[in-house]
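Q: How would the structure tokens look for this protein?
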Amino acid sequence: MIGYTLLGVQDLARAEQFYTAVFAELGAKLVMGMDRIKLFGTGPGAPMFGVCLPYDEKPSAVGNGTMVAITCDSTAKVDAAYNKARDLGAADEGAPGQRGPGFYGAYMRDLDGNKVCFFKMG
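A: Here is the predicted structure in token form.
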């Protein structure tokens, strides 16, 4: 149902470098890029995650209560993505761990303060 999500950033080149390294841990890569937007994914037809410079040219702002959750196919990949993000300067919002029956997740804020969760169900 979801085609792609976008998070606004201040520095597109920095965000591209950050997410290229983080998503490499999950087997995803840059699949589309233009002057104001970069989209990452795992293949044709799969949902994509993007970062962009806001179209209105105003500074990007972090939404209170806004979060993008990225599904992983193993808890090891949750850990790897979270740890790579932290190594690259992301802030901790919840270390990897079991959050409830069948849900393993880790939370971080990227270099622009956007909240992202990596999770494995089951």
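The CA atoms of residues 93 and 108 lie 5 Å apart.

The helical segments are 12-24, 75-87.

Upvote if useful.
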